[in-house]
Amino acid sequence: MSSTYQTLRDRQVASIERILNLNHVPQETELHHESPSSNGLIPKSTPILNSDGEPIWKVLVFDGLGSDVISSVLRVNDLRGWGITIHLNINANRHPIPDVPVIYFVEPTAKNLELITKDLQAGLYSPAYINFLTSISRPLLEEFASQTAQSGTSESISQVFDQYLNFIVSEPNLFSLGMGKDTYLAMNSAQISDDEMDANVDRIMSGLFSVAVTMGTIPIIRCPKGGAAEMIAAKLDRKLRDHILNAKDNLFSAKTSANGAVTTSSRPVLIIVDRNVDLVPMLSHSWTYQSLIHDVLSMRLNRITVEMPVDEADPSKGSTKKSYDLTQSDFFWNKNASVPFPQVAEDIDAELTRYKDDAAEVTKKTGANSIEDLQNDTGASAQHLKAAITLLPELRERKALLDMHMNIATALLKGIKDRQLDNFFQLEEDIKKQTKAQILELINDSDKGKDAADKLRLFIIWFLSTEQEVSRADMERFEEALKKSEVDITPLAYIRRVREVTRMTMITSAPTQPQPTQSTSAELFRGFSSISSRLTDRFKDAGLGANFDNLISGVKNFLPANKDLTLTKITESLMDPQNASTSALQKTEGFLYFDPRSANARGTVPPTAKDARSGTAQSRGIEASFGQRRQGFSEAIVFTVGGGSMDEYGNLQEWAKRTSGGASGAAVARKRVVYGSTELVDAGSFLGELGKLGREST
Hints:
Number of strands: 16
Oligomer: single chain
Shape: globular
Radius of gyration: 27 Å
Strand order of the largest sheet: 6-7-16-15-9-8-13-14
Helix content: 40-55%
Largest sheet: 8 strands, mixed
Strand content: 5-15%
Structural class: alpha/beta
Distance between the termini: 56 Å
């Protein structure tokens, strides 16, 4: 079963490839029962050819969101493989490329439709294959038809498709809607207008509908009462219900869904929650590779920007910025993204050893001194040379990937060392045990890292988690200490306001299993010294600096406690109620239940933001029956309204892996969780949103 399972990224890539292939659908004979698609898989496209048997060369034109959707899963080489010779932004000045097909991949907006009409009128390309990221409204479609008729460009349009791909996938089971890093601010600000709130709710509903279409199945929707989550759930239920009733050949019909996938019989649960259910993961310091990269380095759409010195030996020469792409084919990232950082450092060492051994094996057979000498060596035996040349590209690619990850690891280590992130992480692992005096001492300690925002993050996490009473006098002392650290304390005005609400929904969690290395504390918190000497040699070989030994020593090497976050506990109580804790079950007991396929679990007409604020909205969905509350699921889509955290994604994936019973377990017991949010937000950006809300509060 695992070999045929397609992740959300697999499905989105297959859908995009079909668009690049001019929406060519495999023949019916390719879709019958023996094919992979009978398991709910999207059939693999192959590039269509012209009459001469050559690929059809095309131009790709996209807008901002279209660019983000494609660039997060495909690279330029991938586009070339599908016959895309040039890709351009629809808002840029473009030159005519007559008689070349163009693929438009854009949002259905009045501006984009006007630009498409102008392109065709000017004869920039022909024919046009127009693909909208989401469904175009009837008025806009009629307006576009009117423009086309008036400009006489109907002959230039070959296809118009709604594609339902207005979401960005950055990891196999991680997506965001690309709504920007101020969505939490927009959804919680008292100054937002009802129209803006409704527009945000509609955008989220549209994105979740597209995810359901891409996955090829209609989910059962669960959400807490009240707030934006309920408004989104009610609107999504209505849209799915109307679609099933009104569309003759709907996107979820038993035959095939829009993206060519045959729908599967098991249905996932879609859990929609507001960000305020738990703010801690948005601010916490993490110890896994992907979360550290998200916190320490600048990362967007799987592209990392690393600042590196021009000359290691002479820092006065300044620094330069280097960008790296984390691709689907990166074996090291696939293996280590969710792993604690010290283990990543050890794995770099192991992989470099393996690379050196493989390279030495190749050069030994050919008699060359190094890989670089091979291409100039004519004296080696033809057979060995042929074998070596076959292996060369793979070895070079491996070396380039390992060099990239060594550069990233070096930048992370510098960030950890400068900001003392290992100390902050260690404190947060057991934050509830910290006393007021200890927290105050830490804030006042000028040696605790170079970035005062880390102290503010730790304090907010403690303030939201502690069971101790924090009086007004206590709060004033903390605020005074933070001000002395030269940190902006405006977020605290908002945090004080939401603390009681958040504390009601947070679920505290002790480690679920004992630490594997509890024998001695020295062993658990040992330094990197065991591997630092070997790693330093490796990094020197790669030209990554003589001072690496100083950098790596003293950083603590410990494993994170196996602790489930609030969102993971909520997911467990809705996916696997038999094994969930009582506290988690109590928190989700009142969650509403929507089943768009059922006549009973129906919502009323979705409310507007104005109705919700005035309290005139009717109740929607149904109170789940005991059987519905205890219904188990093997697959879930978990969505947070107002920003997502890499920590939550990693924690959910780790829980799914831990509770799936391994490969020997029954296929149905294998849990899969897709995590989504309005936007993945780093802690610095989230503090900025809290600051703006704090200024509103005062």
